[in-house]
Each structure stands twice: as structure tokens, then as C-alpha cells.
Amino acid sequence: MKKNIQLLISFLAVGGMILLGLLYFSDLTERKASKEKFADFYEMEEDFDVLFLGASHVLNGILPMELWNEYGIVSYNMAGVGNRHAMNYWILRNALEYTEPKLVVLDTAMLARDEKIGELEQLHFSVDHFPYSKTKVEMIEDLIEDEERKSDFLWKFSTYHNRWNELEEQDFRKIPSPEKGADGKINVAVPIEMYYFDEDYRSPEEDTISVEYVRKIIEECQSREIEILTVYLPFPDNTGWQGESNRMAEIAAEYDVDFIDYYTMLELVNLNTDFYDESSHMNYSGARKVTSYLGKYIMTNYGIEDHREDEAFSSWHDDYEEYLDFKKENIQKQEELKNYLMLLNDTSFSYGIYFKPFNQIASYPVLVELLQNMGIDFSQIPNEDYFLFVDNQNGTRHEMRLFETLEYRFGDFSMFYNDDAHLELTNSKSESMIITNSDIAIVIFDNRDLSFVDQAKFKLKGMDMEFPEEVEY
Amino acid sequence: MLFNSLEFLIFLPIVLLVTFILPKKIRYIWLLIASYYFYMCWNAVYGLLILFSTLVTYLGGVGIEWCKGQPWEETKITRGKKLCVGVGFGLNIGVLCYFKYTNFLLDNLRDFFHLLHIELNIPEVDILLPVGISFFTFQALSYLMDVYRDDIYAEKNFFRYALFVSFFPQLVAGPIERSKNLLKQLATPPKFDADNIREGLWLMVYGYFLKVVLADRTAIFVDTVYGNHGNYQGLYVVIAAILFSIQVYCDFYGYSVIAMGTAKLLGYRLMDNFNAPFYSRSVSELWRRWHISLNSWFKDYLYIPLGGSRKGKVRSYVNRVIVFFVSGLWHGANWTYVVWGMMNGAYQMIGEALMPLRNKMVKLLGLNRESASHKIMQTVVTFSLFAFSTIFFRASSIGVAFEMIKNMISTWNPWIFVNGGIYSCGVEQKNFTVMLISIGILFVSDFFKYRGVCIRKEIMKQEWWFRWLLMAGSVVLIVVFGVWGSAYNAGNFIYFQF
């Protein structure tokens, strides 16, 4: 009898140790992308005002932190790469167990898709973070047909345990994303040629699985008295995606739901400067424009409160500071002129930009458009040494030309033309840099503390280069 | 169901619990039901097959006992007994051959007539090979022979005998148990014993390590090389051959150890099917330590009835050729298995034939056969010979095997160890490291076993906290490092095809 009791005790003890060990490794080996994206979602004690649903157009194209900064809207970007509308429906259903938003914004691209899910990896990214619950089980039962694959989602360890050989720092200490679910993109691509289809063109003509689930999303929101705004985010199209927007306009009318169509959204962006790839996803510049527009639309039409003075949301100010640090790091990582210019269409930073006389910028139309995007009309810049400082902290601009003896101060920095006719920047620590020994140069400062962020110099190499390359001096 | 499946991990505790709750008298009925359920999870029709084999050999045994009890002349009794054995063997081997060798025979017939420029239009017959048929057939036939030889009395209880044939821990991949061992144990059900539970669990943990961590990991490298053999030369083929030897060993040994552990939980002792074979110093010794239950079956029920070594050297060699031929064919319906079997037979016979010469060389060179260096050399040579033969075992055809051997000897490419080439065969560097560490654990464990030391028993003598930590740590590491889950398919045990 004693032996049997000892056996029972050891069984329970060893079983407990095994369970703890497996739980630890299960958490360690799980791919963190999903958890990092949604870490802040679960941290919120108050309800979100707005949830954004959709695929990668939304993931890259709507920036909740910009909405917070500009309008005080508290929102979360729930979108995922390749999310079909069946996935969006279940993401909403699961999300509603943790928050009750006033408004759901649904991008309706992929209406013509007649399947419930795309790649399994995409589904993992969007749903792995949801804790185990009845709704999650229902979601997996509905979305996955293969019984073996169901267990991959319900027991994630079976999928991820072999990641032991890919572990990185962020597996051991979680690094939540500061973008409140968004994933902004940095690049400026040459877009495909836009083609406008006939306004009668509809896609799909018959109801697809995606249409069925868009209806379900609308009905779910309406049954819970949650407002719903449907949109069709912009991107260059010559294959007929626009037909989905036309079709969605009809569905939205059926339910008496607002719909901002593709063509309206297209007018907000510049296809030459605002896209990360040739035919699909906005970069930060495009995303800021669309986000700003949606923010204004939401505030005007849905009675969402501005929470910037609300004590209950004071932590969002800290979150925004982290977001600004994140943007600063993004700038510091850049090496290409086009990306610097694209990112500087952002009032979070002040910057100075220098142009050497007889530079070839006019040979690069996209650079000219990017400068235009920043509010700099290149055609107005004289053909001489020219430095423009854009002070976004005070909303002013200051020009400096060669032989001007006045200096310009910004924070601890002083800018002036030195005795060698070079534009020089110095600070109180006697650190200095020359920026005129290049065709174009940029210096960037953080508006929060007027500190130096980055500087970059570029030499234009000739007409055959698409974009100039940065060179070290 | 596979041992390395969730279904089995649910099935086993339920079977255990009910077994020890039930009165001893009827436990075997419950185990019989559980065993048939276990087997029929693959295919319900298989249940009829095993039932047929059971019935035939049961009736054979009863028939033999009946003959023995008749007031006949000795020769008539012997004829009667032989008839029972003959019918039993004939029907069972017939069924085995039908399922296993029909298409092989038809293919060879087609090829033979093709050589004569005659095209035979023999369609392929769609026959699904029942899992484990070779194992339970041999187990049932060994019982029949044991009864014939008066080694045991025929089992009168049909259900207990049926359990002997279908006992689930060893049903689909052995060990092929003898009636003297298992049937006797089934007749006296053991009581619940905590030590059996501990020992059984330790055996199962080791078995799962061998299968899930080591065998299935080496399989990735092996499958990559063999699956694309034209692209791999030189040392890639050498390493694949070495790893396949380890794979087949760990796969089969792992299953056997899990079977032993499972049976131990229930209080039954199964035979150890492997005894550190890679430490053997000769191919003969290796075959005494490898798949012991099968090789002893062939020795007892084929080699000895053929005359063994009692009828002269030539006859002994002939008998061995027959045994290795049949053994090779038992492993699969392909000439590659026959070649593999015959190679190992040839190794032994050549080794024996050259023994006088080898003795002279040892004397001439002043070698010490008992020195560690000599033993290591013998062990390495033995393993190399065995690994070389497994090229045929693993290759899809003899032509492919020869092509791989040609690729192996035509290129010398040791740089694969320094330029990362070794990690380009499906097992990247970290996984390769885990594989090497696991092989190290295997060889250390087998080393102690070869020396007569049972590591498991030594562990069980240690302090409780050490045992707890080691058990928990082992299980967690097997689960983490094991090759399972959606990135892999739950690797079937290799010997299931037999």
C-alpha cells in the first residue's frame, strides 16, 4: 500500500513538472508575431472605440497611433495578411469577447474570394493570440476542414515545438509592437499603370463565401448595436479589383450602412509616392493620408469622443511616446533617399534639406513628387546652394542660402555657412557636421526634445539610376 | 493506432485502469477486446485476418493434443501431428504470401516473360498489406511448433490463446514472443505492482526517445539522400548509410522498448529484441543481438528443422543461405531485401571460411584480439559491413542501390563537413547537433548494456528527486525535440510494413 501511495505521489509530482515544462516551452517556442501584434489589445481595460478589420491593405494602411495623435480616437488594427472575410468575421467574434467597440471599420477588398481562409500561416498570425475559448473552438471548426490542422490551432505546441532551433531574443522577452496592431511599410515603388474599369463592372456577380461573411459581419454588428463603416482602401488597379467596390456599394445599400468607395479613397493618395509595392499596399505616407481622412470621417459621423484629455486613457500618451521612438528608429535605419523623403511627410519631426546647385533632381520625377508630398515645390528652389529647414514644432520654414551670415538655431543646434562656404551644423558640445559636400543632404530632429535623429547625404550618380544612392563622406 | 499518437496515449491509461479494476479471472478477456480494438483501428477487416490465423493455429494445437491422446501407433500419431502442423503452416503461410508476395510474384513473372520477349498482360492486384501480419503469423506458428515438439501443452482456452496471438503491445512489430514465455504469463495474471509501473514508464520514455527524437530525425537526412540519390555522391551516401542503420535500429528498437514498457505496465515481461548490436565484433554476433526474436525464430523453426549444422559444413552453408534468403524476403517483397539478407549471410560464411587465415594473420602480426584497439577495430568493421548492406535494404531497387554505391565510391568529398554541405540534406546544423547528441546517448546506453549494466535499473536506485527531475526533463525534451506535429508527419515505424 505504501508503495502505491508513493507511486501516486511521484506520478502527480512528475506529471505536474512535465505540465509546467511543457507550458513553458509552449510559450517559448510559439511564434511571437501574433502575440506581439495583439499584446496591447488585451492590455486595454477600457473598450476600444474603433476596431479595424481587413487584410494587408488595412494592416499596412491604417495607423491607430496617428488616429490617437490627431483625433484622440482609441482604436486597434485587427487586420492580418491575406485575411478572408470569414477570418474577419471570426476575428471580430473573438475580439468582442474582450471589448465592445462603438464602431467597426471593415475594408471590403477580397470580396470575390470564394474561400474561408488563405494560407494557414496567415491564419496563425491572425488568431494564435486569442486565448482558448468556446468561440475560438467554433472559429477553428468553421474555418478548418482538415481535422489534423484543427489541432495545430487548438494545441499550438504541435505546430511550434520545433521552433526551438529558431529562438531569438524576442522569444525570451516579448517585444510588443507599438503600432496598435498596424504594420506600416517603408518603401516607394513604381506603381503599375492604373486602369479605370467601367462603372457598371461588378465583382463578384454571384455571392461568394466572402460576400456571405461580409453580410454576417454587418449583421453581427447591427445585432449588437455596433456601428459599422465599410470602406475600400486604395491601391493601383488594372485587373478589376474595382469591381468589388462597385459590388460592395450595393451590399452596403442593402443594409443601410456607410461605404467609402475605392474611387473616393483613391483621390487621397498619390500612386507615385504613397505605395510600398507596385500594386497593393500603402507605405507610411499613404497610410497617414488615408488614416487622417478616416479619422475625420469617423469623428464627424459617428460621435466618437476625443480621449486625449481623458484620464482613463492617459497611458495612450505613453504609448504614443513609444510610437514616436519607433518612428525615430525607422528613420535611423534608412539608407535610401526616397524612403527618407517619404517618411518625412510627417510632422513628428523637423528637418533640414540641402540642395547643391546644378543637381539632377529634376531628372528623377519621383523625387520631385516626394518633395511635393512634403510640401516642397522643387520648381521654386533656386539653382544655388539652398537649405530649407522645416520646423514642424512651430510650423515654420526657414531658408538659408550661401553667403548668408545669419545662423539658424533649432534646439541645441546652430546652422550657418562657415568660412569655407560650407553649411555647418554645430551644437553646444562642439560636435559639428558639414552637409554641403553632397548633392542632397538631410538632417532630422525629434520635435519632442529637439534632439538630433539622423543625417544622410546623397550624390546623384547619373541619369540611369532610378534613385540616387547614399554615399559616405 | 501508432504508439507515437495521441490516440494511443489516451487508449493506454484506459486499458491499464480497467485491467487492474477487473477481477484477475476475466482480465484476459478485457485485454483481448483491447488488443482487437487496437488492431482494428488500422482496418476493421484485419480483425478477421488475425482471427483466422488464431483459429487455425488454435485448432492445430488442439488437433495435435488430440492425436497424442489417441491409442494409435507412434508413426500414425506423428503423421497426425505433422498433418496438423502442415495444415496450420500451409494456411498461415499461404495467407501471408497472398497478402505480401502476390504482386511481387506477378511482377517477377512479367519481367521473366519480358526477357523472353513475351508480354504478359497480368494486371496489378490491389492488395492492402495488413499491418503486422508477418509478426502475428510467426508468433502463432511458433506456438504450433512448440505444441508439436511437446515444449508446451496446447492451450485449451481459445480466448486466452487469442490474446497470446493478438497481445497489443507486441502485435504489429514484435517482439515475436514464444508461447513458453508469454502464454504462461497470460495464464497467471499479475497483480498491480508499483515497480512494474515505474519500470514500464522508464522503458516507454526511452523507447519514445529512440523513435521520436532519433529515428525520425535521422530519417529526414536519409530520405533526402535516397529520395534524390542522383544528386548525392561520396560521403553523403556513406553518412546516409550509417544514419539509416541507426534509423532502422532506433525505429525498431524504440518500438520494441515501448512494447516492453507497455507490457510491463500491465505486469508482463516481453523479451528484449535487441542487445547492443552495434557493439558486436562480428556479423554473426550482430545477428545474435539484432532482432533477436525473429532470428531465433528462424533458427528454431527453419534452420534447425533443415538440419542446422548437424549435416556437414556444406549443408550448413546451404541451410544458412536458405535462412538468410527467407529472412531477407520476410522483410519485404523486393529483391533488395533478399540481397540485403544474402549479403549478411555471405558476410558470416566468408568470415567463417576465412577464420583459419585470419588466425594465421593475427599470429603473424602479433595482434592481441582482447586489446581494446582490436575490439574497436572489429566493432567498426562489423558496423561498416552492416551499414553497407543497408544500402540495399533502403534503396527502392537493386539498380538504385548499385547506382548509389557507384556514386559513393566515385567521389571523395570530405569538404562537406566544413562547407556546410552536411547540413543541406534536410537536417540543419542545430538539428544535426541534436541528432549527434542523441546518437551519443544511444551508444553510451548500449555500451553499458553490452557490458551487462542496465542503466534503467541504476536510475531506479537513485534518489527520488533525481528520478523525478530526470523523468520530467526527459519527457519534456522528447516532446520539444521530437519529430512530430504539423511540420512533420507522425513517422510510421519502419517495420510496420512487415
Q: What this model shows, in words?
A:
The complex is a heterodimer of chains A (473) and B (498). Chain A is globular, with a radius of gyration of 26 Å. The termini of chain A are far apart. Chain A contains 17 helices and 15 strands. In chain A, 39% of the residues lie in helices and 15% in strands. Chain A has two domains: 24-322, Rossmann fold (3-Layer(aba) Sandwich), CATH 3.40.50.1110; 335-470, no CATH class. Chain B folds into two domains: 6-189, no CATH class; 196-492, no CATH class. Chain B has helices spanning 6-21, 24-40, 46-68, 74-115, 133-148, 158-166, 182-187, 194-227, 235-265, 283-289, 292-303, 313-331, 335-353, 355-365, 372-394, 398-410, 429-450, 455-460, 464-481. Classes of the chains: A alpha/beta (473), B mainly alpha (498).
Which structural traits does this protein have?
heterodimer; A: alpha/beta; Rossmann fold; six-stranded antiparallel sheet; globular; B: 2 domains; 19 helices
Secondary-structure topology with pairs:
The complex is a heterodimer of chains A (about 475) and B (about 500).
Chain A: H1 2-29, H2 33-43, E1 50-53, H3 56-61, H4 64-71, E2 75-77, H5 85-95, E3 103-107, H6 120-127, H7 134-143, H8 147-154, H9 157-160, H10 169-172, H11 209-223, E4 227-231, H12 242-255, E5 258-260, H13 262-266, H14 284-301, H15 315-333, H16 337-343, E6 349-355, H17 365-373, E7 386-391, E8 396-401, E9 408-410, E10 413-417, E11 423-426, E12 432-434, E13 440-446, E14 452-459, E15 469-470
Parallel strand pairs in A: 1-2, 1-3, 3-4, 4-5
Antiparallel strand pairs in A: 6-7, 6-13, 7-8, 9-10, 10-11, 11-12, 13-14, 14-15
Helix pairs in contact in A: 4-14, 5-7, 5-11, 16-17
Chain B: H1 6-21, H2 24-40, H3 46-68, H4 74-115, H5 133-148, H6 158-166, H7 182-187, H8 194-227, H9 235-265, H10 283-289, H11 292-303, H12 313-331, H13 335-353, H14 355-365, H15 372-394, H16 398-410, H17 429-450, H18 455-460, H19 464-481
Helix pairs in contact in B: 1-2, 2-6, 3-4, 3-5, 3-6, 4-5, 8-9, 8-17, 8-19, 9-15, 9-16, 11-12, 12-13, 13-15
